[in-house]
Amino acid sequence: CDKTYKVHTGDTCNTIVQKNPGLTLENLYKWNWINNPACDNLRPRCNYCVHKPIPDTVPEPHQPNIKMDCKEYYQAVSGDYCWLLCQQKGVDLNSFLSWNPDVGVDCQSMLAGYYYCLRI
């Protein structure tokens, strides 16, 4: 995290997002381990992460819509299939498909030699 926001009494997740351009509710929840959708347990005077740097580079080649804040990549080889790769790497298939949407829901567009996101 490279930028934090100190919560004030009365702040909500929505007001924190409004006060921090570029921040989304999804990232606020993820970066601060907020598991309560009502977001009613913010602690005044505590700092919350509101910005994380994007990794400097995504390995090439990769498909255009790969998730950019990926923490782990895998270079596909001939014969790889999404469900088998996910099983071997311990990755949820639906998550893999959402991070790598260009493979398609049936995984027919997974290309050998290309990098794919395995963890965020």
UniProtKB/TrEMBL annotation:
Coiled coil where? none
Q: Where are the transmembrane segments?
A: none
What domain of life does the UniProt record list for this protein's source? Answer: Eukaryota
The LysM domain extends over 3-50, 72-118
Tell me, what is one Gene Ontology molecular-function annotation carried by this entry? chitin binding
Q: Sorted alphabetically, which keywords does the UniProt record give? A: Chitin-binding, Virulence
Task: Give the protein's recorded name.
Answer: Carbohydrate-binding module family 50 protein
